Amino acid sequence: MEILAFLGPAALYMISMTITPGPNNVMLTASGANYGFLRTLPHIFGILGGCFLLFAGIALGLGLVFERYPIVQTALRFIGSAYLLYLAWRIATAPPPDLRRTGEGRPLSFWQAAAFQFANPKAWVMGLALMAGFLPEGGDTVMNALLLAGFAELVGLPCVALWAGFGTAIGRWLDTPRAWRIFNGLMGALTAACVIFILG
């Protein structure tokens, strides 16, 4: 029952962290605009699934790997930055939906989005602070970690979905190829700019 006392503050923390801009939310906005909300759902659930595994792993000792082997953290930062730049290029160069050839362009899959969380600095910061601040000291550590990580993703779901919905709404207003090019270029630039925070 001790964990119940942490859920209210943990929920407020997760709302503040997941509703604010970051690599995931910028990419969800672009995906919602270009592919629609339904086709973006695997991306949304991939983020949640990846963060669940990451957060639970942090509570069970994954964070110690960074402390003992700093090279792992450095490698993840460069891998994450390279992948983010690739995604930024894909977003920036995506043609308008009505000009795409059949099968051209796809939103991120569940597994792509999930894997990215392990190289996403914001996800690591969220997970480390969540588990350090809200994981009960008593009781079964594994069960508490799984419950807290699951609760965090339940709270985060509407927050990240809001960004995909926002993108879907924007997509309805973009009615010319030029408007699409400007929007996709801006989303690509914002995604690439996140690399500054990863390597900074």
Automatic annotation (TrEMBL):
One of its GO terms (molecular function) is amino acid transmembrane transporter activity. Signal peptide: none annotated. It is found in: Cell membrane. One of its GO terms (biological process) is cysteine export across plasma membrane. The chain crosses the membrane at residues 42-66, 75-92, 112-134, 146-166, 178-199. It holds the Pfam family LysE. Keywords: Cell membrane, Membrane, Transmembrane, Transmembrane helix. It is a multi-pass membrane protein. Coiled coil: none annotated. It comes from the Bacteria. This is Threonine/homoserine/homoserine lactone efflux protein.
